[in-house]
Design brief:
The protein has helices at residues 2-18, 33-46, 69-78; strands at residues 21-26, 51-55, 60-65. By secondary structure, it is α+β, with helices and mostly antiparallel strands. It has a domain at 20-78: Alpha-Beta Plaits (2-Layer Sandwich). The longest helix is centred in the N-terminal third of the chain and has 17 residues, at 2-18. Bound molecules: copper (II) ion.
């Protein structure tokens, strides 16, 4: 039973990795670390396994996630930020 459960878990994780997409967004009003934190929380509320890289100088936000891009853009907008790309 344990073995079956484990192989299911690995198959599930592998599928999640395969479904991972990288979103490259530009958030002009992402000014500081607090903005990044707010945005990261909004993203991870929808996908706890998502990784977020942000650059407040270039305003670029890179998200690795299994969620749809439109869902992530909506979450960022709902958190109060503008998604320009
Ligand atoms: Cu800020």
């Amino acid at each position: 039973m344990v073995k079956a459960a484990e192989s299911f878990r690995y198959a599930h994780e592998r599928r999640e990795r395969n479904n991972m997409t990288t979103l490259e967004l530009v958030i002009p009003d992402m000014a500081c670390g607090a903005c990044v934190e707010t945005i990261t929380k909004a993203i991870q509320a929808l996908d706890a396994s998502a990784t977020v890289e942000a650059n407040t100088q270039t305003k670029q936000l890179t998200i690795n996630t299994t969620a749809a891009g439109t869902v992530m853009k909506d979450a960022i907008a709902t958190a109060g930020y503008t998604v320009s790309a």
